[in-house]
Amino acid sequence: MQHSQHQSSSAKMPWWRLSLFGIGCTLGTGFFLGTSIAIQKSGYAILLLLLLAAIGTYFVLQALAKLTAMQPAKGSFRTYAQLAFGRWAGFGSGWLYWSSEMLILGSSLMALGLFSQLWFPSIPLWMFAAGYAVLGMIVIFFGIKVLEATQSVLAIVKLAALIMFIIIGAVVAFGLLQGTNPAISYEQLTQRFFSSGVMGIWKAFIYAFYAFAGIEVMGLMAAELEHPEEASKAGGVMLATTIVLYLAAIALVLLWVPLDRLPASESPFISALRYGGMPIIVNIFNGVLIIAGFSSVAASLYAVTIVLVTLAEDGDAPRRLSDQEGKRDFPLSALGVTCAGTIVSIVLAYFIPKRIFEHITTAGGLVLMYTWASVVLSYLKLITLNWWGKMQAIIALLLIGLAVVGTVWDKSSRPGLFVSLLFVAVIGGVTLIMHQRWKREEAH
């Protein structure tokens, strides 16, 4: 395959740098902001959901790592879908991922604008969104090395902020600071753990998975590894680090702040710091939310551009999108399409009624789960597995399936599920038409 032999102009990276890159991609608004919705729906059981989502994510990451070790490919999950099931699967999964990520970009950029308006309320939202989009495109324009360096620096800032929050939370939750008392005791936390009921927990499951969104970008970057067989170690270290920090930070929020003081519309960390009367640290954390959002945007811009290039290399998008100019990491034509898609995404986010756009964004998040499921299915098809390997794959598919089906019972998520299925139907229809065309071409 053409793109599996691709050698990037950047130097190959050691496994620990891929771990840091993965933390940069994953530790984003899905965790810092999205967990507030999960807390609202599931209450204290969010801790159990995060643990289950981490197990599912770990098995998906292991599948992706083993596929990378087998054949490092720039197209990652879409290349493996193509190897496993044929050209139609590579075409369908590539375009499905590309279109969903482009839609999610608009909402991420708008969220960044809202965070920034806390400091500069008079600047219009679209100006912030456009500014962050331009910054993201500049990072991508300068290639993989600059993206990796940017993500690594931002990952360290986000990790430091989360550790700082955990220290503050521990001081407050364990009553070590004079005049501060935890909202509930550890005993009360365990007693009320399942107070939201099975349905509340099930509806929130998808948001726990969203906290790990970004691992597929790590898979795309894994082709740059010095030793591709170390992708598994890089993924394991990245996930172990994030889940320990996630559980510690959220547990401290729940011990510190009463549930009714954690609105779904605000980051639980901002709510906790505001509840604790710490305005200076609220501002610091607002900066962290901007950093988290921006690093997610940069990772998405990288992912959609790489997927577009590999689609073009396989003849599933206009060939000129894969034309390399000199030693550039990305063809300028592919960057141009990403830029145009981002503009459309911002315009949609700005002009479409908020509720409709939220449904589109939820749909984009669900399509991400379908992409993860395709990774596991490719893994089952391409790699000879022992009983434990097969078991891991089945558990991952069951957990993802449970999270997706949970949106059926949730009034706010259900329209997003239907939009995601519409996405699948439309791109499935186009894939079928292309499949017939390829068969006719082969016949001639």
UniProtKB/TrEMBL annotation:
Keyword Transmembrane helix (UniProt): yes
InterPro entries, per the entry: AA-permease/SLC12A_dom (IPR004841)
Residue ranges occupied by any Amino acid permease/ SLC12A domain in the UniProt entry: 20-435
UniProt keyword annotations, A-Z: Amino-acid transport, Membrane, Transmembrane, Transmembrane helix, Transport
Lineage of source species: Bacteria, Bacillati, Bacillota, Bacilli, Bacillales
Pfam families in the cross-refs: AA_permease
Native source organism of the sequence: Paenibacillus agilis
PANTHER family in the cross-refs: GABA PERMEASE, GAMMA-AMINOBUTYRIC ACID PERMEASE
Gene Ontology CC: one annotated term: membrane
Topology term for the membrane: Multi-pass membrane protein
Main location: membrane
Protein origin, superkingdom: Bacteria
TM stretches of this protein: 20-39, 45-65, 118-144, 156-177, 204-225, 237-258, 278-311, 332-353, 359-380, 392-409, 415-434
UniProt-annotated location(s): Membrane
UniProt keyword Transport present: yes
GO biological process terms, semicolon-separated: amino acid transport; transmembrane transport
Annotated protein name in UniProt: Amino acid permease
